[in-house]
Specification:
This protein has 116 residues and is α+β, with helices and mostly antiparallel strands. It has one domain: 2-Layer Sandwich (Alpha-Beta Plaits). The chain contains two helices and six strands.
């Protein structure tokens, strides 16, 4: 069976990414180690780690180009990544094991990419 590609869209509650309290260097080291262990475990599934999206954007429609993103949204799309898996359930398992979903207010939408 050929593996399918999945787009993973990282979302967080508006304002959920900001914090007044910065993690300590020890906490940062532990978070990095946990994240690296997840990446190593699922290296065969991870196609592209993607990245964080910038603050400036635009929305193009039939009516023209509008500045964005729009901060009044309840959720902010903050990043993306690409996975490959045999099934959506397998892709769900990869993301469920990710340290990213441990953060309050964070969700990751997983959608299959259909190619012609």
């Amino acid at each position: 069976m050929s593996q399918k590609n999945y787009m993973c869209i990282l979302r967080s509650a508006a304002g959920g990414c900001s914090t007044d309290e910065q993690p300590s260097p020890s906490d940062m080291e532990q978070m990095f180690a946990k994240y690296q262990a997840w990446q190593d475990k699922f290296a065969d599934n991870i196609v592209d780690m993607g990245g964080q999206l910038g603050d400036s954007a635009s929305v193009v429609s039939q009516d023209g180009v509008t500045d964005g993103p729009f901060m009044e949204l309840k959720e902010i799309v903050g990043g993306y990544m690409l996975l490959k898996a045999d099934t959506l359930e397998e892709a769900n398992g990869v993301i469920t094991a990710s340290p990213m979903v441990e953060n309050p207010g964070v969700s990751i939408e997983i959608r299959e990419i259909h190619t012609p």
